[in-house]
């Protein structure tokens, strides 16, 4: 190597460390007070309004962890915020210690902070815009790091918060000193007054890795929430674990605090152990009540790529579906029933638009279903799966007084409006459990396979196509009822009320197309008579347009001619007896026909086995 080249290498070897030392020294002594104007410009550009700092100066002279003092900081509200609100921030004095290495590497920057005479006004509008943050980044649901702040002092300061999206607000005094954090103030949740308090351990020279205790509470008669536990570090709300309690006059009111998209219900009380590892939540040991129902379970909530996934399990010893409606919801439903009359098909919403970014799997178990009156449905087990706007409850089993109703229910909203798909099979049931007042019994099986579009179950069935089948066999029926169903008026009026006839079979198959159900067939066969139904049932409003034709199996003294029209609805049928059965003249005519020897046809036994196979195919 030439002598010139060697000298150049030596100079580089000596000069590079010297240059690095000079740069490090420049960083250590950099006059950060010169950054006042650039900081003002940066903050002003971010919110679109002029941010001002009265004075800014560096306190120390040589350090890679400098301390800077700012006085009379004013941060106005962004331009979209209503002009009646105070400034976003007015702070008399700030002493901030930060890491130069954090600035250079993109790591945690702020290490120490002292604030005096601060007034902060946070606001979220009805559309969800927040005055304390810019547009949410697409990666906002990624796992966050731990803050580097290990010393905080706040005195003579207040924090106000107003949220028009959730209907909540608070105005509280905040103090942080060597004794710890203390926050106390008043607010409201959807118009219901609450008291807000929070306490935490000292944030003064706290050691890295030391868990930080906290206790927060929102207290009110109508709604409340408490969370007590520890964070991985001071104010590290992204990494915590603790015990939570909650109560509310309904779950929707409580949801204004916890923001989980919960519906209105009867009064609720809950307790749970919670862990947060941003952006995930783990809820364990969940216990509580909703109305007269009890619930228990666990869940893990994960957020990835703009989607939320919930996996877990819920169980209940006693559960009433009516508890999932608030008093306002019940009143609305009652008003609708008064206007439309009683309905068998529920008007439950199945629109998945509000959960189009939610997926998950939830196991359900209800040991005892509660109802306002008698019901054959006793228990429930199932698994709810939701994947990209496709919901299924499969397997689903409803325990009956005797027997089960099992299968699946699905809602697919990937292509247009909700498509309801029901495929259920009944086994081992008894007819008496469904209609105890009728005193008709028999072994009961059934099958439902039906699809339709609509935003509620009622709307979907009103457009549906498929089949509904029920078969009852080898039972009993009151003798009078069996005779009258065969239009045998004489025996229907004279037979003993205590005597029973044999129920050979009830065959019900409804072929549904575009929401119109047609018997195919509907037949009741007893030891006294046969009865068949023809006509239609409109599922959209449950309107009946049926005709019943009964034929006895024995000669009868008084026979009702023709068919019996049935109108009204499924819950309130209107059986329209022919004129002959409602007048003395008609009765006399039937007697005359019998005396005159006019013989009426009779019928034999139906082939129940073949009909049952056809109905259940």
TrEMBL record:
Full protein name: AsmA family protein
GO cellular component: plasma membrane
Biological processes annotated in GO: regulation of protein targeting to membrane
Cited InterPro entries: AsmA-related
């Amino acid at each position: 190597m030439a002598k010139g080249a060697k000298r150049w290498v030596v100079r580089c070897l000596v000069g590079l460390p010297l240059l690095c030392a000079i740069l490090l020294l420049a960083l250590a002594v950099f006059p950060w007070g010169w950054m006042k104007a650039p900081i003002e410009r940066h903050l002003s550009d971010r919110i679109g309004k002029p941010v001002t700092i009265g004075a800014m100066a560096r306190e120390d002279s040589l350090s890679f962890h400098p301390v800077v003092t700012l006085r009379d900081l004013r941060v106005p509200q962004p331009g979209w915020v209503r002009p009646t609100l105070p400034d976003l921030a007015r702070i008399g004095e700030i002493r901030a210690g930060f890491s130069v290495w954090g600035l250079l590497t993109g790591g945690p920057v702020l290490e120490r902070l002292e604030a005096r005479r601060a007034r902060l006004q946070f606001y979220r509008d009805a559309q969800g815009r927040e005055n304390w943050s810019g547009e949410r980044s697409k990666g906002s649901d990624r796992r966050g790091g731990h803050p580097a702040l290990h010393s905080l002092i706040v005195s003579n300061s207040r924090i106000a918060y107003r949220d028009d999206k959730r209907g909540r607000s608070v105005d509280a005094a905040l103090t942080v000193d060597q004794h710890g954090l203390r926050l106390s103030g008043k607010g409201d949740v959807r118009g219901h007054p609450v008291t807000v308090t929070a306490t935490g351990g000292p944030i003064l020279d706290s050691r890295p890795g030391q868990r930080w205790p906290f206790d927060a509470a929102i207290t009110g008669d109508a709604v409340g929430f408490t969370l007590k536990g520890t964070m991985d570090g001071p104010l590290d709300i992204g990494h915590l674990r603790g015990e939570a309690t909650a109560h509310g006059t309904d779950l929707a009111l409580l949801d204004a605090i916890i923001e989980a998209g919960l519906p209105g219900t009867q009064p609720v009380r809950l307790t749970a152990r919670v862990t947060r590892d941003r952006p995930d939540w783990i809820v364990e040991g969940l216990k509580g009540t909703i109305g007269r129902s009890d619930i228990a379970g666990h869940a893990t909530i994960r957020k990835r790529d703009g989607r939320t996934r919930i996996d877990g399990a819920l169980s209940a010893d006693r559960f009433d579906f009516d508890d999932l409606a608030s008093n306002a919801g019940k009143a609305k439903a009652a008003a609708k029933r008064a206007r439309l009359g009683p309905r068998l098909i529920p008007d439950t919403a199945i629109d998945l638009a509000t959960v189009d970014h939610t997926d998950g799997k939830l196991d359900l178990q209800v040991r005892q279903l509660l109802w306002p009156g008698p019901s054959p449905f006793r228990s429930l087990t199932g698994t709810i799966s939701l994947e990209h706007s496709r919901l299924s409850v499969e397997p689903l089993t409803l325990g009956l007084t005797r027997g089960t109703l099992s299968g699946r229910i699905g809602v697919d909203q990937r292509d247009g409006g909700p498509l309801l798909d029901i495929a259920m099979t009944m086994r081992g049931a008894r007819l008496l459990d469904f209609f105890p007042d009728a005193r008709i019994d028999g072994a009961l099986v059934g099958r439902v396979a039906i699809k339709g579009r609509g935003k509620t179950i009622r709307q979907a069935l009103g457009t549906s196509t498929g089949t509904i089948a029920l078969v009852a066999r080898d039972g009993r029926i009151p003798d009078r009822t069996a005779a009258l169903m065969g239009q045998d008026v004489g025996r229907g009026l004279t037979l003993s009320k205590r005597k029973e006839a044999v129920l050979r079979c009830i065959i019900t198959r409804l072929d549904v197309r575009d929401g119109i159900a047609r018997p195919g067939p509907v037949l009741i066969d007893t030891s006294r008579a046969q009865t068949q139904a023809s006509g239609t049932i409109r599922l959209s409003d449950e309107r009946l347009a049926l005709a019943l034709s009964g034929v006895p199996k024995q000669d009868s003294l008084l026979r009702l001619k023709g068919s019996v029209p049935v109108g009204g609805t499924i819950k309130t049928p209107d059986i329209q007896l022919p004129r002959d059965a409602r007048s003395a003249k008609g009765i006399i005519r039937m007697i005359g026909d019998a005396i005159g020897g006019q013989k009426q046809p009779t019928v034999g036994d139906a082939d129940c086995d073949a009909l049952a196979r056809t109905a259940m195919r």
